[in-house]
Protein 1
Amino acid sequence: MVGLVEMCERQLGPPSILVNNAGVNANHDAVRMTEDEWDRFFAVDLKAAWLGSKHVLPHMLRAGRGTIVNVSSLHAFATLDGFFPYAAAKSGLVGLTRSLALDYGPHGIRVNVVAPGFVRTRLVQESIDRAEDKAAAERAMVAGVALGRIADPHEIARVVRFLASDEASYVTGASLLADGGLTARRAG
C-alpha cells in the first residue's frame, strides 16, 4: 500500500481523495467459520479500508485537507439471515468512518461512508444468474425496493463523487444510504 500511495503521489501529487471500495461476499456459519477464513475476509472488507486511510492520512494532514469515502453496504444497517460475517464487516466500516471523522476532522479531513443497496455489479448479477428463473430472481430482489429496481453503478459513483467534492464541505462522519428506499420500509 505504501508503494502505491508513493507512486500516485509522484505521478499525480499528494492524495486529497481516497475511496475505499474493496469488498468480497462471504456467507459463513459463525460456528463453522475458521479463524483463517475470518482473517482473510476481514483483510479485504475492513482492514483494507483502514490501511488505505492509514497511508493517505499523513499526506492529507500535511495538506490540511482531504476526504475519505468508505463504501459499505445496506447490510451495515439492515441485514438478512446468512449474511455473517458480511454484515459485521460492513458495520465495521461505519464505525471506522465515525472514528476517523472525529479524529481527523479538526485537521480539515472529512470521512464519510456510502451504504449502497442492490447495485448491478458482477456479484449481484452472478446471484441473479444462478437462479433458474432469472427474471423472477431479480423481481424478488427488488420487491422491497421503493424505486423498484437495481441501481446502476454510476448512480452510486455520483453519491461518492458528491461526498468527495467541496459540495459536501460540511459533511463528515455521515452514513449515507443509497438503497433505493429499501431500508425505509418497516421491518417485519
Note: DSSP finds six helices and four strands in the chain.
Protein 2
Amino acid sequence: MKIISYNVNGIRASMGKNLTGWLVQEKPDILCLQEIKAHPDQFDTYLFEMEGYHCYWYPAQKKGYSGVAILSKQKPDNVVYGMGHQPYDDEGRMLRADFGDMSFISLYLPSGTSGDERQGFKMEFCNYYLDYIKNLLKERPNLVISGDINICHHPIDIHDPIGNKKSSGFLPEEREWMSRFLEIGMVDSFRYLYPDKVKYSWWTQRFGTKIRLANKGWRIDYHFVSNALKDKIEEADLLNDAWHSDHCPIMVELAI
C-alpha cells in the first residue's frame, strides 16, 4: 500500500501546476492533502474521480484557508470529519477514513508563526490532539496519521537549528510535545528507516525559489505509523522533485 501526503498550499493553484498529472504518475492507494484552501464547488473534483479516487473533502469554514482531504482507490467503510471539537473542526484540520481494521488520518496542525495568540492555539491543539489519539489508539490500533505537523523534531530536521532555536516550529516545547506524541505508540516512519538521512519537506518562499534550490528547508511533514503497524513499513521518502507547492509530497509504503 502506497500512501502519499501533500500540503498543496491551495489545491486550485497546485492543479494549475499539473497536480492531477503528477497524481496519475505516482498512483498512490491513498492521498492525504492539507491546506486545500477551497470548498469542493470551487474546483473540478471530477479530475480526481476520473482517476478512480473516492474523494472526501473537509474544508475550513473560512474560505481560502486550511482544509484537508483524503482520496483513496478503495472506498472506505467509514469517514469521520473532525474531532468533535468545534474550534478546531471549523478550521478543517483532521479527516479520518477507516478500511476494515485500519484507519488513515489527514492532519493539518496549526502554525504559530503569526504571533503569540496562534502559537498558544497551536499548543492547545497539540495537547488536545495527543489525548485524542491516545484514546483513538485503544479503539483503532492500526493507525496511520499523515500530514503537515508544523514542527521539526530534531536538529537533523532543520537546516539551521541554531539560528531557528526560537522560531515557531522548532521551539523546545513543540519538540518535547512531539516526543510525548511518539511515546503514546506512534512511529515517525521516515526516521524509523533512515535515522541519519537529511531531507526536508518545506522551504520558505520569501525569497522565491532560491531557498529551495539551496535546500535550506525544514522537515515538518510526517507519516506517523502506530506501533502495531511499524514492522510493515517497507519504504519512506520525501519526494523533493515535485514542485506544486512550498511543501513537497511525502510517501510511505506499507506491506498490507
Note: The chain has a mean pLDDT of 97.
Protein 3
Amino acid sequence: MATLGDIITANVKEASPDRHREERPGGEGVVVRTRKEYRRKDGTYIRFDDNAAVLINDQKEPIGTRVFGPVSRELRDKNFLKIVSLAPEVI
C-alpha cells in the first residue's frame, strides 16, 4: 500500500482532452493525497477526501505545470519541493 510521498507506477485513466500527452499511457507518479489516514510523527492523523498523484519525469520533477487541490506536508520532507510550490495549499 502506498502512502504519502511514495513513488508509484501509474496508468492515466482520465485527462483533459485539449492537452497533448506522450504516447505512453502511464508513468511514475508521487502520491499527494490518500483517503486512508496517515499517522504523522507528532501523533496526529491526516486524511483527504480522495486519492491523488502527480506524474513525474525521470528527474523526479512534475510533468504538468499545475497541481489542483491541497498536498501533504510530507512531500517537503521527501524533497518534492517543486510539487509543493505548485500546490495551492499544503496541509
Note: The chain has a mean pLDDT of 90.
Protein 4
Amino acid sequence: MFRSMNIRPLARRALTSFPIVLLAVLALGVSVATAAISIEGVWSFNGGAVGIQASTNGTFEGTVVTPTRFAECVHPAGEVMWTDMQPQTDGSFWGLHQWYNGSQCEVVPQLGHTAWRVLETPSGVRVLKVCFDKPEASAPQPTIAANGKEANVTYGCVESSPLAPLPKVSEEEGSGKGGIGNGGSGGGSNGGSGGGSGGGSGSGLITFSDTVLLPNAKACVSQTSLKIKLRDPKYDPLKEVLVKINGKQVTDIKGVKRLKKGITLTKLPAGTYKISILATTVLRQRLSGSQTYKSCAPGSGLIGLKGGKKHHHHG
C-alpha cells in the first residue's frame, strides 16, 4: 500500500530555487554568447589603430600600433594605452585608460576608468564601443549594456571598427630558410642562417626576411660599414633590435622612431664574421635571423655603430 506524501513543501522548494537556477542559466547563456565576439584584434581609433591582446594574467591590454589622437594629444605607437582590461560576466570589459594633460601633453599619473564592449549590428558587422571617465578618483566605473547603452560616463564614448586580426609571426620563422632581405649592397649567393621566409605583409604574417633587410653576402665584403634596413610589420612596429657579431653584442636600440632610421655598423672585423639580429615588436613578438660575411681586406679589430659607442671585438 502506498503511503501518502505531502508534495506542498517539495513544490514550494522547487519554486523557490527555480529563479536562482534560471538566473544562473541566463547568466551562463549571456557569457557564452558574448564570449563568441572576441575583443582581440586591431581596431581603428581616432585616425590610428590599437591592437588588443590577452595578457598572461587573464586580462587584456591595448597597445597603440599606429599613432592615434585622443582629446588633444597624440598617443605614439608602442604605448600601452589601455591596461587591466578585465572581462565581466555580462560580456563587457572594465579597465584603465592613459590620459595626457595640458598643451604639453604631460602624462597624467591617475588613470581613467574605462569600459569596452564588442557589439554586433543586425548585418553582422562588429563595432568596439569604448566609454571613458575623466581621470578623477571620484569618477564612477562606466558601463556598457548588451544593447550598447552606456552609463556613468563622465567624458564620452568612441566607436571603432575592426581593421585586422592580430599580426602573427610565421610558423616558418627560425626554420633556417633564408632570412635575408635585399638591403641594397652586394649580390650573388646568400649564406644566411636563421630567420624565416614565406608569408609577408600582405598575408598578415610577420617574417624576419620582410622585416630586417640585411645586405646580400658576396664573395667578400669590401665596405667599411654595413647598413641594416628595418621595415615595420603592418600593425606591429619594431620597438627593439639587438645586434651581435660573432656572438658579441654590438648594440641594442630601442624606440619605434629611432628604429625607423635603420642601423649602420662601421669598422667591421677582418675575416669571416656572422651578424645576428633579434627584433622585438610592440606586441611582444620576436624575430631572429643571421647572415655570414667575409671581408676582402683586414679590418681594424673594432666594431663600431655609427653615432654610438665602439665595442672591442675579440675573435
Note: The longest helix spans residues 8-35.
